[in-house]
Amino acid sequence: MIIHQVSRSWSIVLGLLTILLGIIALSNQFVATITITTFIGIILSFGAAVSLVKIFSIHGWQHHFWYLVVALVYGIAGILFIARPFQAAVAFTFVLGWAILISGIFRIFMAFRLRHHQGVGWVLFSAIVSIILGALIISQWPATGLYMLGLFLGIELIFAGAGWLGLGLSTAK
Question: How far apart (Å, rounded) are the C-alpha atoms in residues 62 and 13?
Fold first, then answer.
């Protein structure tokens, strides 16, 4: 078995920088949300370009048609996310709220199916948190669309940074 050595200093630096980025995102959730939306638009536009390039490398019109459909959908979505980041953020947050709520409901069913397993309480707990979070996002929509993605990004960056920082601090010199 190969054990990879973790660089203590790089983990600490990466953790601190990631925490700092999380704090910046939380300090202006609106700007962070618009940044995320624009970035998603760029990724979708890149996906459209890749699909268009793929058309020239395949044979048969059926395959061309589907790659063209994918390219058009990605392209239109990408342009909308870039040109109208506010509206895209609001729509994306609505879908995200429902996805979180529905995933919580499914995890409740899974928890009951796994009720005889040790630690299933954690699955149930995470399901309840997801249902509450999804319901809060949906109930406050469309206002949540203007800050929720930035809030999630900030929280994620802080916890990811804490993980790197904790790893670096616990690693022997």
Answer: 51
Q: How many residues does the chain have?
A: 173
- 45 near 97, Cβ under 8 Å? no
SS3 string of the chain? CCCCCCCHHHHHHHHHHHHHHHHHHHHCHHHHHHHHHHHHHHHHHHHHHHHHHHHCCCCCHHHHHHHHHHHHHHHHHHHHHHHCHHHHHHHHHHHHHHHHHHHHHHHHHHHHHCCCCCCHHHHHHHHHHHHHHHHHHHHCCCHHHHCHHHHHHHHHHHHHHHHHHHHHHHCCC
Q: pTM of the full predicted structure?
A: 0.69
Amino acid 80: pLDDT: 94
CA distances from 94 to 98, 104, 141, 152 (A): 6, 16, 7, 14
- Is 95 within 8 Å of 111 (Cβ atoms)? no
Nearest to 157 by CA among 18, 8, 26, 17: 18
- Model confidence band, residue 46 (pLDDT cutoffs 50, 70, 90): very high
The answer to whether the CB of 153 falls within 8 A of the CB of 36 is yes
